[in-house]
Structures are given as structure tokens and as C-alpha cells.
């Protein structure tokens, strides 16, 4: 059974896992990030890889390769982490550094959302003649598009759904600024005049039937529906899968979003409502996708 290491790198944590060619996760570990310094951050990546190998009792010699998901813009051909807003890795040669440290020639690098999207596409058995979209709603909002079996990348920055403006209280604001996790927390703090509130409290208040929280969630889901309608109109996808902590931990949001999206759509666009789902891989889609991409490379 062929095995690869998948690494999902974020500003707060780094996950590493042993992944089989069929997408099975054999062992997973997680360490805290250290974005205070580029070398310290790389040291944490090395620590995550060493831990998952030690915990699984698998040698690096038994690993076919390493797949790495990195936030922001990456140069896949050169293996460079080009730009991130939450890591100290501007122009960081992560591919060469991992090869130097572990002696592994086969290394695949990509944006972390693209890695997660690949795992989700495989999980729903995405067809090679369809358009598939993965949307993540977490501390940020982004998406990745797989069209006819290949990523749609544009000039290299495609999928930034969070930057699309939506109408909020009479002005246009980026979707991420009004509907991502931190934005929901800030919105609730203003509306309820509660400085100590956190995002999960907002969802708890909604599920407990408190009216003041219902108005907040109603507004947030309208923003999300506006952003998703741009995807519906531009791409008319066959499937959309949602990931990220905001929606994975609060699956009731999908029903609300569908109801709002239905208002915007023409009848010819409404087929997507039956093909919108929440990730079954949850927090593992990044490492699974990164591992699987190793087996896709030549």
C-alpha cells in the first residue's frame, strides 16, 4: 500500500498525516505554528512530520512523497511559498528545504484551499466533465474551482470569493469582512454591545432561539447567499461542497443559505440547491488533499 505525507500549514497550527493512495488517513498529528520567525515556523513543520512518522512507526523511506498546503500564493513549479498574510514566509523555498531535510524528491506544493478542494472533489466522486466548487468559511472565506478534472487558476489568484463585494447596510463590503468568523464576532459585539462574545456564542444563541442572535445570523447568511450567487451566475457549477469551521460546526447554516440563495436565482440556476453539501472530511480535508496530490504528480 503506497503512502504519502500530507501537510496542512496555517497561521495557528500545522497538521501532518500519513495518507494512502485511496485517501485513507492512517495517522494524524498537529502542532502549534510559530509565525514569529520564518525559520522557527519551518522548524514546526519539521516537528509535525517527525511526530507523525514516529507515531505511525513508518520510516520516511517508506513514503512516496510529501504534499504541502500553504496559505496564500504559491509558485508550484519552483516550490516557493510566495505570499501569505499570516506567515513570515515571503518567497520561502519550502520545497527545497523539505527535500534537504528529509531527502524526499517527490514533493507537491499548492495553496491550502486547493489541497482541501482536491480531497473534497475525490470524496464526492467528482466527474471529469463537471464543474466542482469547494467553498471554505472559517477565519477567512475562499473557494477553489475544479473544471473538467483540472483546477481553474486564472493568472494564479482565482477563487478569492472573500474579496467579492456584497451589499451590507447600504454599502459594498468584501464578503470576508462581513461573513467570516472574526467578522461575525465583531458584528455581534457591536449589535449586542458585548465585548466578551466569541463567534461560537453567536451560533449557540441562535440554536437556543434567542431573537437577537437570529437577526445576526439572518444578516450573515444573506451576505453569504449574495457571494454564492456570484458563483452560481458565473460558473453554474454542478456541485458545491462547504468546509471551514464556521459552517462545518454549524451545519444548520446550509439550509438558511439555500433558502436565501433560492430568492436570487432564476429557475435555470436552482439545480445547484440539490447539490450543495457540507464536507464529510471536516478538518482533515487539507492533509488528505495534500497527501493525495503526491500520487497525482509525475
Describe the structure concisely for a colleague.
By secondary structure, this protein is α/β, with parallel strands linked by helices. The chain contains ten helices and 14 strands.
Descriptive report:
The protein has about 300 residues and is an alpha/beta fold. It folds into two domains: about 5-115 and about 285-295, 2-Layer Sandwich (Nucleotidyltransferase, domain 5), CATH 3.30.420; about 125-280, Nucleotidyltransferase, domain 5 (2-Layer Sandwich). Helices cover about 40% and strands about 25% of the residues. It has ten helices and 14 strands. The protein has helices at about 40-55, 95-100, 110-125, 175-180, 180-190, 200-205, 210-235, 245-250, 250-265, 285-295, and strands at about 5-10, 15-20, 25-30, 65-70, 75, 80-85, 105-110, 130-135, 140-145, 150, 165-170, 170-175, 240-245, 275-280. It has a five-stranded mixed β-sheet. Helix 3 packs across helix 10, helix 5 runs antiparallel to helix 7 (about 210-235) and helix 7 (about 210-235) packs across helix 9. The longest helix has 25 residues, at about 210-235. The radius of gyration is 20 Å and the shape is globular. The two termini are about 20 Å apart. The model has no long low-confidence stretch (mean pLDDT about 95). Belongs to the ROK (NagC/XylR) family. It comes from Heyndrickxia vini.
Amino acid at each position: 500500500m503506497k503512502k504519502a505525507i500530507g501537510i496542512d500549514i496555517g497561521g495557528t497550527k500545522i497538521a501532518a498525516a500519513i495518507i494512502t493512495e485511496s485517501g485513507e488517513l492512517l495517522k494524524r498529528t498537529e502542532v502549534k505554528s510559530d509565525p514569529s520567525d520564518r525559520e522557527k515556523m519551518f522548524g514546526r513543520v519539521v516537528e509535525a512530520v517527525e511526530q507523525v512518522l514516529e507515531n505511525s512507526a513508518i520510516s520516511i523511506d517508506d513514503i512516496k512523497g510529501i504534499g504541502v498546503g500553504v496559505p496564500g500564493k504559491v509558485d508550484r513549479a519552483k516550490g516557493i511559498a510566495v505570499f501569505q498574510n499570516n506567515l513570515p514566509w515571503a518567497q520561502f523555498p519550502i520545497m527545497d528545504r523539505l527535500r534537504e531535510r528529509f531527502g524526499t524528491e517527490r514533493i507537491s506544493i499548492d495553496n491550502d484551499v486547493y489541497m482541501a478542494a482536491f480531497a473534497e472533489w475525490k470524496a464526492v466522486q467528482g466527474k471529469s466533465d463537471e464543474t466542482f466548487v469547494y467553498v471554505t468559511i472559517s477565519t477567512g472565506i475562499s473557494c477553489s474551482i475544479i473544471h473538467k478534472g483540472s483546477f481553474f487558476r486564472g493568472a494564479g489568484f482565482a477563487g478569492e470569493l472573500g474579496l467579492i463585494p456584497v451589499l451590507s447596510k447600504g454599502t459594498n463590503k468584501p464578503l470576508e469582512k462581513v461573513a467570516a468568523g472574526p467578522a461575525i464576532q465583531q458584528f455581534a459585539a457591536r449589535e449586542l454591545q458585548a465585548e466578551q462574545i466569541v463567534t461560537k456564542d453567536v451560533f449557540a444563541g441562535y440554536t437556543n432561539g434567542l431573537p437577537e442572535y437570529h437577526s445576526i445570523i439572518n444578516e450573515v447568511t444573506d451576505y453569504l447567499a449574495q457571494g454564492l450567487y456570484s458563483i452560481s451566475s458565473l460558473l453554474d457549477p454542478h456541485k458545491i461542497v462547504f468546509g471551514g469551521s464556521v459552517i462545518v460546526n454549524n451545519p444548520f447554516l446550509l439550509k438558511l443559505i439555500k433558502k436565501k440563495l433560492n430568492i436570487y436565482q432564476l429557475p435555470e440556476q436552482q439545480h445547484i440547491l440539490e447539490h450543495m453539501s457540507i464536507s464529510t472530511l471536516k478538518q482533515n480535508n487539507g492533509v488528505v488533499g495534500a497527501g493525495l496530490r503526491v500520487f497525482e504528480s509525475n
